[in-house]
Amino acid sequence: MPYIRLLFCCLIFWGFSGSQATARVLPSVFIFITNYPVCPGEPIIIKATPSDLGTNLTYQWRINGVAKGTNSDTFTIDATMINITPDDIIDCVVTDNVTGQQATSNKLTKVERLVYSAPYAEIFFAGVGNTGLACKNSLLFVGSYIHFNYNYSIADINLNVKYTLEWMVNGVVVQQPVAGYFDGNTLKNGDQITLRVTISGKCKPFEQVTSNALTITAVPSPTVAISSDGSACVGLVAQYKATVTDAVSPTYQWLVNGNKAGTNSPNFSSSTLALNDVVSCKVTSNSQCGPLEATSNQITVSGAQSYVNSVSISSSAVNNFITEGQTVTFTANNSYKGNVNFQWYVNNLPVGNNSPIFTSSNLTLGDKVSCTVTTTDNCVVPQTVTSNRITILMIKPIVIPNAFTPNGDGINDKWTILPLLAYPQSLTQVFNRYGAVVYQSVGYTDGWDGTFNGKPLPVGVYYYIIRVDDKTPPFRGSLSLLR
């Protein structure tokens, strides 16, 4: 039985002519919309293409199995005559009037016209955490969504619609290496990005829309400029200042000849700069985009060499000891040898002449000699210097006053014993009536002013012991403090 069924099957599809078999091909019909996609208001035109049928054919078009249209290989659905919905099923039965063979076409569903709606474009900052912050040396990505003017399918758009995208910054079309990516180096704060879309399709050959605008928040690179105090003297303290713009919590790195110098400060000073040294400053801004650096202009050290002015004096008297009427010569040794003036002083009163040498035979015990050297030359610091003071010493009898009046009237306000100047190791002590030390000095100072720990002592009798040296008996006695 299986053999008979197989043979029967074969007889259906194969015919025999003598000893040779001939293949029989079944007829078919394929229908399609010729004007797809169909624009609003246009008729829907469906074409039938039969295969393996003769030329004397009859066409029967059907909608949902109900005969429609005319005996034609073309079926036109006019919106004013036939109301069709996407759920309707359209097919065509083609009959060969000679052989009687029939073929039913494929079925078309969702046959409809395009529906127009106003196109629009929407753009947005793309990427995680992207808020429109434009950073230097980085790209900002802007995504886009485009709604076309008709309800095209993806296939429709790929085959039947042409469109162009033009990215714009402040209304000006910009060129980009990759669409939607913007160079952070070219964007400025407040710039507005938009997208212009031009659509060209079958139903409408030209339509253009512009998207919403995105506002850029640009983080500018910092700038720094340095200036100096204008010092033209090499070797003096030179002051530099850095002025920064567009920097957030900046840090400063000063450079001298490319090497780090100074501190993290907008100000830099140095007295060790040499001629032709180059000073600059690098600033780092701690911005939202991370560290941003800027390097300042360069300032080259130039000008004249500077000199440090100083002066010391010496006397011809051995250890500054003289006798009454002795001639003493003082010599000023100044470090700067340029254009200078000398002014000598004895006890702060000007004496002598404009000379590095001063000679006097009128000096006495306790006189203080000094010299001031002044110059108006540039690049000399300081321009006025004062020497050390030399105190004249003489061996004189030690006469100790037995009273003084520290009342501030300028007369006998201190208990002074000038001859002690000749005894730098002498020890002077003053006691109150209870034996407590209220004043003590080694060597001669400037006398006692009647105070203890900065406070005036009461009027009364006090007692002193003065030890001049190990060879001389101490001086003892009392003195009265009066007001």
CATH topology of the largest domain: Immunoglobulin-like
Rg over alpha carbons: 57 Å
Shape: rod-shaped
Q: In total, how many beta strands?
A: 46
The CATH first-level class of the largest domain comes to Mainly Beta
What's the overall average pLDDT, rounded? 89
How many domains comprise the coordinates?
A: 5
Characterize the structure shown:
By secondary structure, the protein is mainly β. It has 5 domains: 26-104, Sandwich (Immunoglobulin-like); 120-218, Immunoglobulin-like (Sandwich); 223-305, Sandwich (Immunoglobulin-like); 307-391, Immunoglobulins (Immunoglobulin-like); 403-481, Immunoglobulin-like. The strands form 14 sheets. Strands 13, 14, 16, 17 and 18 form a 5-stranded antiparallel β-sheet that branches. Strands 23, 24, 26, 27 and 28 form a 5-stranded antiparallel β-sheet that branches. It is rod-shaped. It starts with a helix and ends with a strand. Residues 27-109 form the Ig-like domain.
